[in-house]
Amino acid sequence: MPARTGKQYAAALRDGRRVFQGGRRIEDVTAHPGFAGTVRTLSRLYDLQHTPEHGPLMTAEWEGECISLSYLPPRTAEDLAAKRRNIAFWAEQTLGQMGRYPDFCSELAVGLVDAADWLAQADKRFAANAVAYHRFCAANDLCLTHALNDQFYDRSKRVGEQPDPDLILHVVRETPEGPIVRGLRNLATLAPLSDEALVYPNRPRTPDEADYALAFAIPMNAPGLSILCRDLYAEHADPERLPLTARFDEVDATLLFDDLLVPWERVFVYRDADMAAQFHRRINLWAGYSTLIRLGIRLEVFAGVAQLLGEWSGKTNPEALGLMGHLLQDIEVLRACLDEADLRAGKTAAGYWAPHLSEAFRLQGIEASDRAARILQDLLTSSLILTGGVTDLPSELGPQVDRFFRNQAPNTRDHLRLLAVAADLVQSAFGARNLLYERLQSGEPENTRRRLASRYDTSALTERVLRFLREGWEVSQ
User: Fold this and answer.
1) Per-residue model confidence as pLDDT tens for the chain (477 residues)
2) Quick check: 255 and 227 in contact, CB under 8 A?
3) Count of alpha carbons within 13 angstroms of residue 354, beta-carbon side
4) Tens digit of pLDDT for each residue in 311-328?
5) Which of 237, 139, 252 is nearest to 193 (CA)?
6) Residue 261 pairs with which residues in a beta bridge?
7) Is 217 exposed, middle or buried (0-12, 13-18, 19+ CB in 10 A)?
8) CA neighbours within 13 Å on the CB side: how many for 76?
9) How far apart are CA 427 and CA 49, in angstroms?
10) φ, ψ for residue 252 (rounded to 5)?
11) Strand pairing report for 178-185 and 65-68
12) CA separation for the pair 102, 238 (Å, rounded)
């Protein structure tokens, strides 16, 4: 059965990958406290695929095998609806906190299948590679990440004009087995806990920057690849005081390529600036859908936390109701965006059923995410700065903590745990990182607005105004 178990997922992470953080090499990410909580979270989700209750929701028959629905290329509206339910389940189980959970990049692999005919325009081998790679990922239920961003180079100069050409990932030479690449690629969230990475640029290349214009997939233990992690928020996190951090920290990373061989069968775009510029947009149809579904559930968690704490504090004044109303308004708008994506869904050129996504939906999600954090801060004010916690209850101060920290909650433990969730949403390093991730994971919002404006068909809008201008303006007396 291709849908994997949690034990299989964890075992695959012990593959000799080179993971570094804070000057140390981490030999086994599954055993390290900075990663172990997230490994347990994802292992549990993989295990749920094999339960009678959740298996039918999370898996589907495809080419004679039972695979994760995340890897299903949808052919019908019913297929897309099944994918939406699966995505929502993954998001609900992680409270919408994991932007790079396995479903997201699995949907990019589905996008590869859809883009195969387009890739064939450059080279039929690359189209075959895309289809074969999706099949390989689906058959092994792989956990993927992607690495898109160039960083730490002179932005005043073009890519090919850098004094050090290795600052940005590029081809250094070509061999019969495949290209050799060197350089850096950033924002590889979940990389230390993934099986493989899809690697491609999110910035355009010019025709004379062909060595920097490529897209490929690579396993995380590939010779020549090092994974450099940011701070491990979960390493010293008390699960009672940082409950989200301890369970859901995905760990962002930089990938360092040191003369790494990319086998030809793993290449999708090669030395083609135009194809590289379009690659992400071409494969992102279902991944963007996954993000929108997850973000709606993330906002619902904000609303649920705010509502409970409001009830337990007796805060029902007009100002609090107005803030809650704004949060609920954003949730309803995002639901409408999702319903619109389904309502206007249709077949791609390759015959797959894809949601109709607008960059306006993504912009709405960014603004809603920012507002949710501010609203929770405005509602809860200084109570977000935790003093007492559940770990204080067994101490000598326990009776006083039990008495003074209960508020109107059913019990003190519930109240302290809910306060810990609220603080972890907006007050911790994990919460601040997630806010930044939601705002910038699709690039700078202003650039997204420019793309929306440049691609939007305004002909019907202007035609309506022109008709009015050119009709008779006589006004009967």
Assistant:
1) 689 999 999 999 999 999 999 999 999 999 999 999 999 999 999 999 999 999 999 999 999 999 999 999 999 999 999 999 999 999 999 999 999 999 999 999 999 999 999 999 999 999 999 999 999 999 999 999 999 999 889 989 888 889 998 999 999 999 999 999 999 999 899 999 999 999 999 888 989 999 999 999 999 999 999 999 999 999 999 999 999 999 999 999 999 999 999 999 999 999 999 999 999 999 999 999 999 999 999 999 999 999 999 999 887 788 889 999 999 999 999 999 999 999 999 999 999 999 999 999 999 999 999 999 999 999 988 889 999 999 999 999 999 999 999 999 999 999 999 999 999 999 999 999 999 999 988 778 888 899 899 989 999 999 999 999 998 787 765
2) yes
3) 23
4) 998 877 888 899 999 999
5) 252
6) 180
7) buried
8) 3
9) 34
10) -75, 150
11) unpaired
12) 25
Q: How far is it, in rounded angstroms, from Cα 174 to Cα 262?
A: 10
Contact between 376 and 425 under an 8 Å Cβ cutoff? The reply is: yes
* Phi then psi dihedrals of residue 186, to 5 deg: -110, 175
Distances (CA, A) of 242 to 118, 417, 418: 46, 9, 11
Q: Residue 87, Cβ neighbours under 10 Å: how many? A: 25
Which tokens in the block code for residue 331?
């949730």
Residue 257's φ and ψ, nearest 5 degrees, are: -105, 120
Task: Note whether 331 and 369 are within 8 A (CB).
Answer: no
Residues 99-141 have pLDDT tens digits of 999 999 999 999 999 999 999 999 999 999 999 999 999 999 9
Give the residue among 300, 293, 102 at the shortest CA–CA distance from 193: 102
Angle at 301 between CA 297 and CA 303, to 5 degrees: 110
Cβ(415)–Cβ(453) below 8 Å: no
Ordered by where they begin, the domains of the chain are: 6-283 (2.40.110.10), 285-455 (1.20.140.10)
Residue 63 φ then ψ, to 5°: 50, 40
How would DSSP label each residue in 291-321? HHHHHHHHHHHHHHHHHHHHHHHT---HHHH
List of E strands, 314-423? 346-347, 353-354
CA-to-CA distance for 300 and 264, rounded, in angstroms? 44
Please tell me the distance from the alpha carbon of residue 177 to that of residue 262, in angstroms, as a whole number.
8
Q: Is 175 helix (H, G, I), strand (E, B) or coil?
A: strand
Length of the chain: 477
Region of 301 (left: φ > 0; alpha: ψ -120 to 50; beta: rest) is alpha
CA distance linking residue 419 with residue 386, whole number of Å:
8
Which tokens sit at 319? 């100002």
Q: Which amino acid is at 161?
A: E
